[in-house]
Amino acid sequence: MPKATSILSPFHNLPVGEVVDQLGSVKAQISDLETREKALRDELIRRGITAASGDAYGANVSSAVRWSLDIKALKAEFGADWYDRHCRQALVTTVKVEPRAVVLPIAA
């Protein structure tokens, strides 16, 4: 017998505004964590660490050259039509979340 699959998301019973608020809150937490991650990463680099271990994790620091294409130079040399013919396209959906300005009621 086939298994039933849930067609409801874990958030199906939340009002849209609550979904937006939770998403904004999660994104803010991620931003704070990324800021802390960068500071810790930079500290290992600043100390010149190449390998280190803690009680739960180990870290290796390495450097490599990253190659990237200069899009403006490619278009200038080969033309925009050539560039467009050699590019892949993909549909991308973006959800932008921004904090709202909170308006406080004026006390009478």
Total count of helical runs of at least 4 residues: 3
**Average pLDDT taken over every residue:** 92
Number of strands: 2
User: What amount of the residues lies in strands?
Assistant: 5-15%
Radius of gyration: 24 Å
Q: What is the share of helical residues?
A: 40-55%
**Contiguous runs where pLDDT drops below 50 for at least 5 residues:** none
Shape: extended
Return the string of H and E elements. HEEHH
Record the SSE blueprint.
Blueprint lengths: L15 H31 L4 E3 L4 E3 L10 H8 L1 H6 L23
Would you give an account of this structure?
This protein has 108 residues and is mainly α. It has a domain at 16-85. It has 3 helices and 2 strands. It has a two-stranded antiparallel sheet. A hairpin with a 4-residue loop joins β1 (51-53) and β2 (58-60). The termini are far apart. The model has no long low-confidence stretch (mean pLDDT 92).
